[in-house]
Amino acid sequence: MNAIPENHPILVEARKFAELLSRSEEVIRFRLAEEQVEKSESVQNSIAAIKRKQKEWVHAKHYKKMEYAKLLEKELDQLNQYLDEMPIVCEFRQRQVEVNDLLQTIQQVLADTISKKIEVETGGPVRSGCGSGGPCNCS
């Protein structure tokens, strides 16, 4: 498979579009929310506590300490719920959904536009061979 050259006009335009997208309101709001989550001591402490409990849970399961593992599962559920209900985390997740929706919409626009421009065979016999009708006698 041939690699597309870096200076291919489509790639040049894609980079321009990516730059435009990175300056969109949705992406800017997402990055700000992400930065707040990363800088929040309470969020980072909660994440660290969850990771510690997860390791404990894995060890408990490995050593077949099922009662202890169930206790850890309850604690993990509580820690995750606490994290999920933090306003800063809710904001981050909302911004994440907005950016994802934007990207999915862009992807759908591209797919719809391309499928309108490219004729796609639907049904009928499947063609095979080179299509030249030459020595292999294909069509």
From TrEMBL:
Task: Read off the Pfam families from this record.
Answer: Com_YlbF
**Lineage per the UniProt record:** Bacteria, Bacillati, Bacillota, Bacilli, Bacillales
Q: Which domain of life is it from?
A: Bacteria
Check the UniProt entry and state the signal peptide residues, or none: none
Q: Which PANTHER family match?
A: REGULATORY PROTEIN YLBF-RELATED, YLBF FAMILY REGULATOR
This chain's source organism reads Thermoactinomyces daqus
Write down what this protein is called: YlbF family regulator
